[in-house]
Amino acid sequence: MTELALRAEGLGKRYRRHWALESCDLHVPRGHVVGLVGPNGAGKSTLLQLAAGLLEPTAGSIEVLGAHPACDSAQLGRVGFVAQDASLYAWLSVEDHLRLGAHCNASWDAAAAHARLAELGLSPRHRAGRLSGGQRAQLSLTIALAKRPDLLLLDEPVASLDPLARREFLGLLMSTVAGADVSIVLSSHLVSDLERVCDYLVVLVDSHVRVAGEIEDLVAGHHRLIGPRQSGHAAPANQTVIAASETDRQRVLVVRSDGPVVEPGWEIESVSLEDVVLAYMGQGAVLQSSLPSTPTAAP
Amino acid sequence: MTWLAWRQLRTQTLVAAALLAALAILLVLTGPNLRHYADTVVNTCTARHDCIAVTANFHKLAHLANPISLLVIVVPILLGVFWGAPLVARELEAGTYRLAWTQSVTRVRWILVRLVAVTLVAVAITGLLSLVVTWWQSPVDRLNAGLFNSFEARDVVPVAYVAFCVALGALIGALVRRTIAAMAATLGCFVLVRYVVQQYVYPNLLAPLQLTRHFRAPPVNGNNSLIKPPNPADWVQSDQVIAPSGKVLGQYGGIGPHGTFGFNVSNNGSAVFRGVGRCPNRIATPPGHIRPQHLTPAQAHFLQAEIQRCVDSFHLREVLTYQPTSHYWPLQWSEAGIFGALAVALSAACIWWVRRRLP
User: Fold this and answer.
1) How close A72 comes to chain B (CA, Å)?
2) Is there a contact between A65 and A5 (Cβ–Cβ < 8 Å)?
3) Closest CA to A158 of A88, A85, A94, A264
4) Which residues make Cβ contacts (< 8 Å) with residue A115, sequence separation at least 6?
5) Residues B103, B110: Cα–Cα separation, whole Å
6) Shortest CA distance to A242 belongs to which of A276, A195, A219?
7) Sign of the C-alpha dihedral, residues B264, B266, B267, B269?
8) Nearest Cα residue to B186 out of B69, B63, B89, B61
9) DSSP state of B201
């Protein structure tokens, strides 16, 4: 279990002139449910496709479960992938998709796959092209799970689903993998999707990884500071300012710090996960650099 | 993976096999009749002096000959366009490559198995089609003495064409990534390659044979007497008239690019051999009353001698270049070898591209 689920060093992917992902460093241990969050076009899909071996990196390197993605059939068998919009063969039936999985994977849990379909109420004779978005996502997930992967990658699995189907999909995902020794990485542009199911978070903005870590640590390590607008110092000295905003009388900072925050003259509040993500996703980076004094990272 | 490759090919294979079976039944039912008529009635027509009527009747019986030959030319293109081009392109377009390439099958194995499966089925379909059509057409081909006329629609060559066209389609599909565009480009490229090979490679594959004789003026009264190849089914590539200097003076057994033959004769009989030069002798008007187009045998003989004297003075040669019927099979195998090798090369390029450059 010492190998990492995901290890990226200086990873980058360029499409013609545009860098979809740039100088990305990640060390995600196994055994987590990882949420990959960021606005549309931040590079989430690119990162997941690099991990699945569908894309080749332009720069740097990526390792998945200690090996190069898609390097051989054994490695492919260890990684399950559910693509955005659940790519399926529209003219193949549900049953045919399970046969496809059975014929293309050495370790295939046919019984579990059929049981799951029965549970979902999916008729095996339906053509995949006739299924609803939620059913397609469920079938995709069923195929990926029946491979009995060590790592499951889900690219925006719930983006096209209505709120009820969303809840159902994530609920089923969690109950299926509960107790199984499988790491999961799933992406979404909504924190609310991920909050309930993830214990690890990677925030991706503008093709760069802004922050990554266990959610507990992230929530505990960030604070909101509220102080007078005309305070002498722009920012507390031993903290990194992630986001800053000003009202007429007040100045509100979201800061990251490793130790306890004791700041005279500032009111200190704890933050929610959404606050942290929004701080990183918002114009945080812009404000940070435009602050009068450059904040220094906490030691 | 073999299962998926077959599943993706199953419906179209069954449809193609059904169409082929229907055609085969039609040909097998009509073929023996045609053969019998050719062997008995047509073969003995010279004795009965009714060859023209009998041959016309035979061609009426064999009215399917042209459309069927066309079918053998068209089917390899259709299979390349409709089976080869979408092979990779449709997966990319529909996004299904993300499902296919994340199963426990490497991309190289995926494309290899799919290419081999499609090529095998296309080769089998085209091979059977060519076999049954070649059999059915053999009495027609024999009567037409056109062994080489339908070279591209008989025997092994169509099989090599289809292997090439499928590989071409798959590669273009992987490069273009759009099914419809790939289909159009496949059609265009195939026609272009076929044209280039047919114009520039095929005539030079095997050294042709030559027949040379002293150039004779065509008879003033009667049919032209060009040199004939030893076998009427031989493929005449050129029939040139050549000066002693080696300069080619004309094609088609005559002078000039259109193979004409004629003199400009002035009133006093001095004459110019058109396209060659001034005659050393005068070409005198034959004795007696002359009705145009109706020379008496004596007058024709007189004129023929005058003309031949002029022609002889230039010491021209007529050279016939031809592929004998014995070259048919070596040419078939060479042409098939060229397109087979191209098919292998394009398949390798397609596999490399899918492995290295996609998506």
Assistant:
1) 6
2) yes
3) A85
4) none
5) 10
6) A276
7) negative
8) B89
9) I
Rama region for A64: left / alpha / beta (φ>0; ψ in -120 to 50; rest): beta
DSSP code for B234? S
Within 13 Å of residue A139, how many CA atoms lie on the same side as its CB?
33
Residues of A in contact with B100 (CB under 8 A): 104
The dihedrals phi and psi of A60, each to the nearest 5 degrees, come to 70, -165
Please name which of B141, B111, B139 lies closest in space to residue B346, comparing C-alpha atoms: B111
Residue B14 structure tokens: 């069954």
Q: What is the pTM of this model?
A: 0.85
Q: Give all strands (DSSP E) within B156-244, no chain letters.
A: 209-214, 235-242
Quote the tokens at residue B51: 């060859």
| Interface residue A16 vs chain B (CB under 8 A) | no
State the residue for tokens 């096999």. B17
Contacts of A149 (CB under 8 A, 6+ apart): A77, A78, A79, A80, A182
End-to-end CA distance of chain B: 20
Residue A4 identity? L
**pLDDT tens sequence across B267-322:** 787 888 888 888 888 887 777 777 767 778 888 888 888 888 888 888 889 999 99
A147: closest chain B residue by CA: B103
pLDDT at B189: 97
Q: Which residue has the higher pLDDT, A232 or A16?
A: A16
pLDDT of residue B106: 93
Mutate to test the interface with A, among B3, B102, B356 (most CBs of A within 10 A): B102
How far out from the chain centre does Cα B84 lie?
24
For residues B143 and B42, is the Cβ–Cβ distance under 8 A? yes
